[in-house]
Amino acid sequence: MKFTCDKNILLKEISMAQDIIASKNVISISSYVYLFAENDFLFIRAKDLKINFETKVPVTVIESGPAMVLGEKFLGILSQIPEGEMDFEYRDNKVKIKTSIKKINYQLKSLDSDKFSELPVSDGQYFEMPIKSFKEMINQTVFAVSTDESRLNINGVYMEYAEKKLVMAATDGRRLAFIEKDVGEIIDFPGVVVHTKILNIIRKRAGDEGLIAISITNRMIFIRFGSYNLSSVLLEGQFPNYRKVIPEKQSLTFSVLRTEMLDAIKRVTLLVEQKSNKLFIGLRSGKMLVYSEEGEIGDASEEIPCRYDGEDIDIAFNYTYIEEPFKAIASDEIRIKFNNPSEQDLSKAITIFPVPESDYFHVVMPMQS
């Protein structure tokens, strides 16, 4: 197999493939990227235990055929060689890479391409939606996924189809992120839990234009956008009934500017005890105190304006549970609804909304004061 192309064409795609490959330090079959040159296209495939990836780029094919190349080393070479045309040749289990501008030659040992197994193909139907909307759904949920590996059923983002809407939700047991988007009539599918790895790749690599196509089978999710085909096994286990934790009624509310709140959190948490991450919000008429409790290293507080007209209330939170939704929400102003913590029969959770309210929100449980 032999082809020539501009090195930057390959660099982007091999970088994406390397994001997927699991074994970056231990050399194994999953450390390799599969290449196939044909009809002036180079097909690129990569996979690990969770995700499969395929794309194609235009190249000048001199000799058709397959090759396997060590992903990490190939990416390193592409990152370092000069801008311009490069020659790639595979023969006798060796890959040769040359550049036309400088006399630089690389030779990598390779594997037999037959060792790379075929990628799975969906046997179901796809539905489409704007890729920008799907990326927004990822941005509003993925950070709330549990990192406790003993709870696989909440180690991913839950996805379901309900009332002509695509719903995504994530929880780690102390917070919930929820968003829904109108998708119209699509093929119904049971609720599934999707690996965050495939969602983060889409969030990082996909543009904002065009459509994304999604197919869900019994055990896998398949995603297509642009020239990319991705697939991933689904996580096993029953996702919790997240609708039960959404407060039905909340009688109190306050609003604050998003950037002012984020700046205050950033400054005050310099003196928050890292073991607890406990941050206090003190609501006063027309203002808010953001403060830490006194610890071995000291304490900090900051006062910022807010829209609130009620009795004085202090609530403690894990500050990351407030900071992360504030970073994800795009609106300038944020509204928080809650109940008086002293009322025993009401939910203690707070609900965070953009202003004006949209198709997403975040539910956060306070800490013990």
Can you walk through the features of this model?
- The protein has 369 residues and is of the alpha+beta class.
- The chain has 3 domains: 114 residues, DNA Polymerase III, Chain A, domain 2, CATH 3.10.150.10; 117 residues, DNA Polymerase III, Chain A, domain 2; 118 residues, DNA Polymerase III, subunit A, domain 2 (DNA Polymerase III, Chain A, domain 2), CATH 3.10.150.
- Helices cover 17% and strands 40% of the residues.
- It has 6 helices and 25 strands.
- It has an 8-stranded antiparallel β-sheet. Strands 14-11-12-13-25-24-23-18 form an 8-stranded antiparallel β-sheet.
- Strand 11 and strand 12 form a beta hairpin.
Beta content: 35-45%
Q: Give the proportion of residues in helices.
A: 10-25%
CATH topology of the largest domain: DNA Polymerase III, Chain A, domain 2
With strands numbered from the N-terminus, the spatial order across the biggest sheet is: 6-2-3-4-17-16-15-10
How many β-strand runs? 25
Q: How many helices does DSSP assign?
A: 6
Total domain modules: 3
Name the CATH class of the largest domain.
Alpha Beta
By CATH, the superfamily of the largest domain comes out as DNA Polymerase III, subunit A, domain 2
Gyration radius, to the nearest Å?
25 Å
Structural class: alpha+beta
| Shape, per Cα inertia axes | elongated
Low-confidence stretches: none
The separation of the N and C termini measures 66 Å
Overall pLDDT confidence: 93
Largest sheet entry: 8 strands, antiparallel
CATH architecture of the largest domain: Roll
Looking at this protein, list some descriptive labels.
6 helices; eight-stranded antiparallel β-sheet; DNA Polymerase III, Chain A, domain 2; alpha+beta; 369 residues; 3 domains
